[in-house]
């Protein structure tokens, strides 16, 4: 069965925080939620670009309730400051969409010295989710949706070299960060047992966005030929965020060939993403690296 934005239930009275919402998949996610009545917080690194995105949403949906929050996931100080500011302005968070990310970047470090892709895509979102957890837990039926990728399938978690200091490969570093997104989601869902908050993951398949700017030319052409637009690429995230029929711990992606395009459905993830020992160890290491702990019991 197909699923489109017309299937999104009314979101009036709900608050959604979407990271990386000024462009691409994040923008389409935020715009669709705002069009259904949600108060959407665009959590963005660049406030000027965020303002342009908010203005565009307002033109598409007159009366849309959209606010801006500066958030730089490459800085744990920025993550803490953003969470503090959101706590001062919000009394509930129904939906946290961990969408922002980088892909196939040249070797670089975050402001805290982490490998850029792992530090941004996983550690930044891990810390942000942990700091927003109390608002999520205080909101009945809230959800955390983290955007992963088909690329998680070539990822490996090597705890003896998490920061790729022994040799950097942009493709394996990306795969590691996206595998970490899934390990985090599944562990978080288990730890949320006994609450009404749930954790899900989604991937856009092949979706043409600014993320592919670091792809080599020939690969970019192949990727473009198999990709769908960002509006379609956002549908798995939107379904994970709003469909009453999905449940915590599920992973959604396109239904088409190789999960590159098509209507969103529940899909499977790699065997490595379900390794309970690895996900628990990654959780512990992530707490140590970020200094952020979750007020939740360990997974059973």
Automatic annotation (TrEMBL):
Q: Which Pfam families does UniProt cross-reference here?
A: adh_short
Signal peptide extent: none
What CDD domains does this protein map onto? retinol-DH_like_SDR_c_like (cd05327)
Q: Does the keyword Isomerase apply?
A: no
Which keywords belong to this entry? Answer: Oxidoreductase
**Tell me, what is one Gene Ontology molecular-function annotation carried by this entry?**
oxidoreductase activity
- The keyword Metal-binding appears for this protein: no
Q: Which InterPro entries match?
A: NAD(P)-bd_dom_sf, SDR_fam
Family of the protein in this entry: Belongs to the short-chain dehydrogenases/reductases (SDR) family.
Q: What is this protein called?
A: SDR family NAD(P)-dependent oxidoreductase
Q: Which organism is it from?
A: Mycobacterium yunnanensis
């Amino acid at each position: 069965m197909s699923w489109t934005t017309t299937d999104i239930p009314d979101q009036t009275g709900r608050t959604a925080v979407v990271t990386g919402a000024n462009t691409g998949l994040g923008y389409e996610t935020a715009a669709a939620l705002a069009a259904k009545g949600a108060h959407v917080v665009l959590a963005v690194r660049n406030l000027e670009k965020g303002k342009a995105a908010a203005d565009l949403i307002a033109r598409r949906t007159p009366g849309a309730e959209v606010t801006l929050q500066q958030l730089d996931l490459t800085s744990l100080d920025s993550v803490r400051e953003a969470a503090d500011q959101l706590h001062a302005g919000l009394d509930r968070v129904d939906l946290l969409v961990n969408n922002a990310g980088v892909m196939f970047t040249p070797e670089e470090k975050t402001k805290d010295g982490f490998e850029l892709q792992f530090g941004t895509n996983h550690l930044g979102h891990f810390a942000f989710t942990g700091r927003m957890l109390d608002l999520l837990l205080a909101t009945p039926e809230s959800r955390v949706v983290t955007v992963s990728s088909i690329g998680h399938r070539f990822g490996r978690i090597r705890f003896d070299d998490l920061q790729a200091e022994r040799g950097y490969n942009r493709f394996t570093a990306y795969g590691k960060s996206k595998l970490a997104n899934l390990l985090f989601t599944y562990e978080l869902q288990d730890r949320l047992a006994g609450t009404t908050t749930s954790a899900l993951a989604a991937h856009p398949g092949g979706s043409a966005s600014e993320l592919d700017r670091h792809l080599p030319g020939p690969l970019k052409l192949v990727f473009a030929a198999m990709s769908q637009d960002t509006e379609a690429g956002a549908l798995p995230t939107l379904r994970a965020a709003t469909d009453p029929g999905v449940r915590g711990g599920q992973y959604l992606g396109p239904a088409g060939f190789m999960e590159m395009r098509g209507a969103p459905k529940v899909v499977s993830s790699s065997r490595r993403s379900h390794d309970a020992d690895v996900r628990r160890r990654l959780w512990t290491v992530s707490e140590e690296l970020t200094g952020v702990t979750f007020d939740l019991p360990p997974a059973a």
